[in-house]
C-alpha cells in the first residue's frame, strides 16, 4: 500500500513543490489550503479550508483516512509573513499570524499524531524560517520569530516526546525562497541577505524535506536551508 502524506499550504510556492516531490516518491498526497483546486491525479486528494480553523484539520484527517486509509507524514508548510516595525503591527496582524502559523500547526498535528500513534510510525516536518535564530537588520520580523521560533522549539519537544513511539519530528528552516511571497523586483536585494549571494528555490526546500523523510535516524533536527544565513555574515 502506498504511503500517504498530508501537505498544508499546498496550492503554491514551497507547498506545491513539496506535493510534486512526494508524488515523485510515489506517495499519495493530501494537499490542503484555502484555495486549492481538485487534481486530475488520482493519487492527489485536495481539501480546501482555512488551516487555522480546527474544523479544517478534522476534515483533512477524516478525508485522508476515508480516501487513502492511512497517514504516514505531515508537512506543516502553511504560513504567513507580515514584516512591519514592531509598533506598527495591528491586533489583526497579530491574530492572523498566530492563527495561521501556530493554530494551523497545532490542530492538524495533534490529530495526525493521534493517528500515527496507533501505528507507532510517522513523520512530521515543520517549515519555519532562519529569521527565528538569525534576525536581520532592516527585516523586522517579530511575529515570524514569535511563531516560527515557537515551531522550532515545539519540533524538538515533540521529537523527544514521541522518539520511542516511532514518530519523528523535524523542521526545515528556509532562507528567503523564490515564491509568490516575493515579487521578482525584490529578488536581487533579497538575494544579498544570504552569504551565498542569492535566494533559494522551492526545490531546495522540497529536497531537504525529502532528505528528512528518508533519514530514519534524524529527529528533532532544525535543518537550515538558507544559503548560510544562520551560520553568520
Ligand atoms: N518564501 C520564503 O522566502 C520563506 C522563507 C522562510 C519561510 N517560509 C515559510 O514557508 C512556508 C511556505 O511559504 P511560501 O513562500 O511557499 O508561501 P506562499 O507562496 O505565500 O504560499 C503560502 C501557502 O499557504 C497557504 N495558506 C496561507 N494562509 C492559509 C490559511 N489561513 N489556511 C490554509 N492555507 C493557507 C496558501 O494557500 P491559500 O492562499 O490557498 O490558502 C499557500 O498555499 C510558510 O510557512 C513560510 O512562512 C517561506
What does the model show?
This protein has 233 residues and is an alpha/beta fold. The chain has one domain: Rossmann fold, CATH 3.40.50.720. 41% of the residues lie in helices and 16% in strands. The chain is built from 6 helices and 7 strands; from the N terminus they run E-H-E-E-H-E-H-E-H-E-H-H-E. It has a 7-stranded parallel beta sheet, sandwiched between helices. Helix 2 packs parallel to helix 3. The protein is globular. The mean pLDDT is 98. NADP nicotinamide-adenine-dinucleotide phosphate binds next to helix 1.
List the strand order in the largest sheet. 3-2-1-4-5-6-7
Query: How many domains, as an integer?
Result: 1
Strand content: 15-25%
Helix fraction?
40-55%
Radius of gyration: 17 Å
CATH names the topology as Rossmann fold
Distance between the termini: 47 Å
Count of individual helical segments: 6
Query: Architecture, according to CATH?
Result: 3-Layer(aba) Sandwich
Low-confidence sequence ranges: none
Fourth-level CATH superfamily = NAD(P)-binding Rossmann-like Domain
List the SSEs and their pairings.
Layout: E1 4-8, H1 13-24, E2 28-33, E3 44-48, H2 54-68, E4 73-76, H3 91-119, E5 122-127, H4 142-162, E6 167-174, H5 187-191, H6 202-214, E7 222-225
Parallel strand pairs: 1-2, 1-4, 2-3, 4-5, 5-6, 6-7
The structure holds NADP nicotinamide-adenine-dinucleotide phosphate (NAP).
Using brief descriptors, characterize the structure shown.
Rossmann fold, SDR_fam, 233 residues, oxidoreductase activity, binds NADP nicotinamide-adenine-dinucleotide phosphate, 6 helices, 3-oxoacyl-ACP reductase, NAD(P)-bd_dom_sf, single chain, globular, seven-stranded parallel beta sheet, 16% strand, oxidoreductase, alpha/beta
Amino acid at each position: 500500500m502506498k504511503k500517504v502524506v498530508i501537505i498544508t499550504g499546498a496550492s503554491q510556492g514551497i507547498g506545491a513543490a513539496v506535493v510534486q516531490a512526494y508524488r515523485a516518491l510515489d506517495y499519495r498526497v493530501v494537499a490542503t489550503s484555502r484555495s486549492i483546486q481538485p487534481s486530475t491525479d488520482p493519487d492527489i486528494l485536495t481539501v480546501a479550508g482555512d488551516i487555522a480553523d480546527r474544523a479544517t484539520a478534522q476534515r483533512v484527517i477524516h478525508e485522508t483516512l476515508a480516501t487513502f486509509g492511512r497517514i504516514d507524514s505531515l508537512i506543516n508548510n502553511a504560513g504567513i509573513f507580515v514584516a512591519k516595525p514592531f509598533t506598527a503591527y495591528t491586533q489583526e496582524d497579530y491574530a492572523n499570524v498566530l492563527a495561521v502559523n501556530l493554530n494551523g500547526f497545532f490542530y492538524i498535528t495533534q490529530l495526525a499524531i493521534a493517528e500515527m500513534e496507533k501505528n507507532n510510525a510517522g513523520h512530521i516536518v515543520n517549515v519555519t524560517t532562519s529569521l527565528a535564530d538569525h534576525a536581520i537588520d532592516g527585516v523586522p520580523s517579530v511575529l515570524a520569530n514569535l511563531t516560527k521560533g515557537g515551531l522550532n522549539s515545539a519540533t524538538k519537544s515533540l521529537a523527544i516526546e514521541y522518539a520511542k513511539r516511532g514518530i519523528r519530528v523535524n523542521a526545515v528552516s528556509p532562507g528567503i525562497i523564490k515564491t509568490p511571497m516575493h515579487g521578482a523586483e525584490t529578488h536581487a536585494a533579497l538575494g544579498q541577505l544570504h552569504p551565498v549571494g542569492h535566494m533559494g528555490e522551492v526545490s531546495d526546500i522540497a529536497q531537504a524535506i525529502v532528505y528528512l523523510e528518508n533519514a530514519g535516524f534524524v529527529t528533532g533536527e532544525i535543518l537550515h536551508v538558507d544559503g548560510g544565513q544562520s551560520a553568520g555574515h
